[in-house]
Structures are given as structure tokens and as C-alpha cells.
Known about the structure:
Helix content of chain B: over 70%
Strand content of chain A: 25-35%
Oligomer: heterodimer
Largest interface: A-B, 47 and 41 residues
Order of helices and strands of chain A: EEEHEHEHHHEHEHEEHEHEEHEHH
Structural class of chain B: mainly alpha
Strand content of chain B: under 5%
Shape of chain B: globular
CATH architecture of the largest domain in chain A: 3-Layer(aba) Sandwich
Shape of chain A: elongated
CATH class of the largest domain in chain A: Alpha Beta
Radius of gyration of chain A: 24 Å
Number of helices of chain B: 12
CATH superfamily of the largest domain in chain A: P-loop containing nucleotide triphosphate hydrolases
Radius of gyration of chain B: 21 Å
Number of domains of chain A: 2
Order of helices and strands of chain B: HHHHHHHHHHHH
Amino acid sequence: MIEVNELTKRYGSKTAVDGLTFTVKPGIVTGFLGPNGAGKSTTMRMILGLDRPTSGTATVNGRPYAQHSAPLQQVGALLDAKAVHTGRSAYHHLLAMAATTGIPKSRVEEVIDIVGLHEVAKKRAGGFSLGMGQRLGIASALLGDPEVLILDEPTNGLDPEGVLWIRNLMRDLAARGRTVFVSSHLMSEMALTAEHLVVVGKGRLIADVSVGEFIEQASHDSVLVRSPRSVELHDLVAGPGVTVVSVERGAFEVTGMSAADIGERAATAGIPLHELTVRKPSLEEAFMELTKDAVEYHAVNSPELATAGKAA
Amino acid sequence: MSTVALRYPKLKITQARVMKSEWIKFWSLRSTVVTLAISVAVFIGIGLLASSMVGGGAPDGRGPDLNGPVGASLAGVNLAQLAFATLGVLFMAGEYSTGMIRSSLSAVPRRLPVLWAKIAVFSGVVFVIALAAAAIAFTGGQAIADGGASWSDPGVARAVIGSAFVLTGSGVLGIGLGALLRSTPAAISTVFGVLFLLSGIAGLLLPDSWSTVVEYFPSNAASSITAVTTSDGSLGPWAGLTVFVGYLAAVVAAAAWRLKRSDA
């Protein structure tokens, strides 16, 4: 369980994180979403006590991270794949990390096997590829077999197999009751992994909702209509609150009217339909729409989204 | 939910464990081990070289007298100080330049135990090695030099132990400056400036009446610890030691303050 309350970080006149409040619950994967520069990494660093908040608090399992007697057992973090001395081997890096808290050597060997670095564990970490560095970062996050995992862009630099591996690892940990908090700017990735989303833009909370709710709130379903008499049908569905966009000859997309309504109007007018498809917006599209709003409204929260945040 | 606590029930950060971690860090870097070996080689090598010239130099105190045969055998201490200081800088600032510090501080989020452990492990390892090196340099030097001194001569044991102490202290200065400046090049230049250039430049620029002040500079204070006999005007060995330790304490305190206060 991670609880972030009114967390704010200013660098001079620039506000990186602005009054963030949210809770990350155990048992599910929570995605931390936002465009680059939205304050995701800064927030994660403040949760781990690496950065000092200007105001507000962040606690992990009820206490500030630094006040736990065995922090590595509470939180495993992958903040930056480059948080390793380039001259040291992966094995010795993990051994030194483990030693601080009394984690046995056997666990070091275990996490090396879990992340699949066995072959290169005794080699200098400086020679590692981005993907190998990422695996080493995940190995150190797993060292204390922690209850909470904080992963900043864990799939960065991984090949498709590695991405799949991380995804399964996160789901598996969540299924075992762990708290998994993972940041990304790739919506498609979150759609496949996360159950819950905390969305930020410009350091502010945009939404704190389940993935399904997020898509629903952020964007409306559209209906793809194909008909040989599309011009006539176009005039039948057009009206206030309905948007019709031509897709190609004989087809258009309708937002603001349900597929059932369109079908009934077509039937009443005797217009044949060749296709009537409801299109659910992807997470990617929903996200684009939300962050676009965040940019437009700057300081003012969109009322619709503020409600979404409260509802969650 | 807490399968964790059952699996490793006794996990806890202790200062001893953080020291063990720093011990692993120290020995698992080729750069630290190589720098340590070079530092020792420089220290002993210069001492032996200087010793071979004792007695062969010009009379009337000109030539490489260097406080007699003892001073000659320990003549490497000046240059070795820079090498050991560099070792200290690498040990600390290397964590900042590589990003390792973020791992170190997430493992030990209270932070200060990391600095104490680094200083303790470094001092322990370096003092033992520097003391052995000083003993080798002294013994070897006396064997080479004409009219060598013996361990029982006045001031000899103090000079040998003092050399090891000054070398260790220079390394701690490197650690402190590394933590304070968070940059290997900046910390190394500062250490070189303080230990090597400062008193020389001050000697050239300041009027003679300031010479008492110059004796309080770190390098001068250090020299009075390692010298067998102190010349007029310079600090005595114990006064020098106090001044030198004072500098170390000030730098380490500033480093601790910055480590605790600022973002990692």
C-alpha cells in the first residue's frame, strides 16, 4: 500500500509535482501514466525518500520509506537502470545491496536466476545492454522479496520476450497480493498489464480510475457505419450532439448516437446496412484525449475528470 | 499477504551490515584495488629511491637530506597522499558519477550510515595497508641508506605510524570532498589544490609575517605529523595532528550535512 498525500515538489519556480494525492492498493497492478515530464519519476523518487518533497507526504505500508527497519523488504524499486556502478559485476552489486539489510547470499543467486542474468552475473555491469541493465535493476528490486514494487518504465529497452516476461512478473506479483506500481508513457502497455490507473499531467492528478472506467470517462464509443446509400443515411443521423466523420466512400463514423439508434433509423427509412461496428477507443486514444485536456486547461481541473478521480 | 516476513524474518539495517556492504563495494571494483596498489607502490618506491641517495648527497644540508634517513625512507608520503586521496574520491564520488548512489540510498534511506560505513571501512583497510607500506619503506630505506636509523630512535615510530595516519586521513578527505562535491574531477582537483598547491602558492604570495598561518594549512599540518624532527616555526606533531583532524572533521561534517539534506 502506497499513500501519497498532497505531495508537491518545486525546483525553483518550476513545479514538477503539484499537490498529488492517490493510493496504490495491493493485489493489483497500478499504472502510473503521463507524458514525459509529467512528474512520474519525481513522485516515485519522493516515495523512496531520494528526493525531499517541498510539501506533502508519501508513505509505504503506513510509514515514510526511510523509517522502516528493513526498507528493501518493504519496497523494491527500479527507478533507473543506470543506478549501478559500471565497474562492478552484477553479482557484487546485488551482494552489496543485500548486505545492508542482512539478505542472504542465496537470495542474491536466486534473483539472478529469476531475471535470467546467470551467464553474465560476474561480468562488469558497465558492459551490459539496456535490456540487461533493466534486468539487473529488477533483480535488485526483488532482493528483499518486497511487498511493494515501484517500477519506473521497466520495459524500456527490453526485447518483446523481455516485455512479456515483465508483464507476467508484475501480474504474478500482484496476484500474490503485492502492491505493484508501474510507470509508463505507453498506454498500449498499460492496457495489457494494469487494472488501475493513476494518470498525471504537468504534475497534477488527471484521473485515478480503473482501466475500463478510464476509457469510458475519457472518450466516447463511436460507430462505424457502412451502407450503399450512405449519403441518405448521413442526413438521417446528423443532428445536435452527434458527430459524423466520413471515413471512405460509403462509410462514416458516428459519435454521440448508439448503434441501436442508427440501425433503427436505417430500418425505418429502408436503407440497407453493410456494416455497423461499435468501436471502443483504445487506451492510447483515451490517454491522448485526456492529456490534451490537461494541456488545454493547465491550472483548472476538468470537472468531468475531477469527478472521475473522486469516484475511484 | 505477508509471505515476505515469514521468509526472511530477521531483516534489518544495522551499521555493521552497511559496513559489510561497503567492504564488498570496496573490493569488488578493479579501479579501487588498482589505485590502492599504485598508491602503495608510489609510497614505497619513492622512499627507497630517496634512501639510496642519503649520504651520497651534497654536504652542508643541501641535497636530499629530507630529515635524515628516516625522512628519506618516508619521502613518498607527499605524493602517496594524493594517490590515497584520489582513492577516497573514487570510492565516494564514483557512486555519484555512475548513479550507484541512488541504489545505495534506496537500500539505506537514512543515508548517514552509508557515509559512516564508507569512512570506517576505508580507514580500516587503508590504515592497515599504509602502515605495512610505511614499515616496509622504513625498513627497506634504512637497509639501503648510509647510517640508517633504527626503530628505537626517537620519533621514528611516531613518524612511521604518523605517515600511515596522514595517508588514511588524506583518503578520508577525498571521501568527504567526494560526498560534498559529488563529482570525481571536482573533488580530485580540490584535493590536489588543498594538499599540494595551497601551501606552496601561499608561501610565494604571502609575506613572511604570515608564515605562522601557513603552518596551519592542511599539508603543513600533515608534514609535522610525519616528520621526525620539526623545524622552528612549524607545528609540533600533536598540534599538527589536531589541526589535520580538525580539517577532516569539518569536511566530513559538511559532507554529512549535504548528504542528509539534499536530493540524491
